[in-house]
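Weekly puzzle thread! Below is a chain. First person to post its structure in C-alpha cell form gets bragging rights.
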Amino acid sequence: MYHIPMLTFSLLLVGFGGNNGTTVLATHLANKHHVSWHTKDGVQEPNYIGSLVRASTIRLGTDPETGKDVFVPISEMLPMVHPNDFVINGWDISGVPMDKAMTRAKVLQYDLQRQLAPLMKDVTPMPSIYCKPLIRLSFPSGPTLIYQIPSRVTYNAVLGAEARGIIADIAVHREEPRGRDMIQGSRVSEYPTHNHFRREMEDVVG
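Winning reply:
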C-alpha cells in the first residue's frame, strides 16, 4: 500500500448550508466519529457505500489455487486521502449554524440528526454573495450572510469580488502550507461558470 503524506485537504462547498452541503458534512462526521443510529429496520452503521473511490474494487488477478478472481479496494491501490481526514466548510447566503441547517433540510433520520447536532452546532458557512438569478425560488428565507458589495457595480465586478473573497477564505481556511483545496458547487445542476469568475480562480489554482 502506498504511503500518503499527511495533508490538509479542504473540501469547500458553494451552498454549504443546503440539503447537499449538510448531508456531506453529516456523512463525514458520522464516519469520522463512528456514529451509528436507529432506523425502523434496525441499527445503521456509517459507511461510504456509494462513494466511487471508497466502495469500488478492481480485479487484481486470479488465485492460482482456487482459480477465482481476486479483487481489492481501489483506495488500497492508489494514493488517496481518506475522507475522514477532510476539513469541510463552504459558503452560503444563510448564516444558520449547520445543525439547524441539517434540521431544515429534512434529509437525515432523526436519531442521526440528534447525535450529530452537537458536532455541527459550531460550524457556520462563510459569507457568500447574493446573486438573485442563481437562487432557487423555494429558498426558505432571505439572505442573512452575504458579502457587502457596492450597489453600482457591474455583474463582472460582483463575480470578481466573489472570486477574490473565495481566495481570501481559502488562505484563512488552509491549516497547513502543504494543504490542498477543492471547491465544489453543491447544487444538482450548476449554472455555467462565468468567464470573469473562472479567470480570477485560475490565477490562484493554476
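Puzzle host: Confirmed. Bonus trivia for everyone else. Strands lie at 9-14, 37-39, 42-44, 57-62, 69-73, 86-92, 126-127, 180-185.
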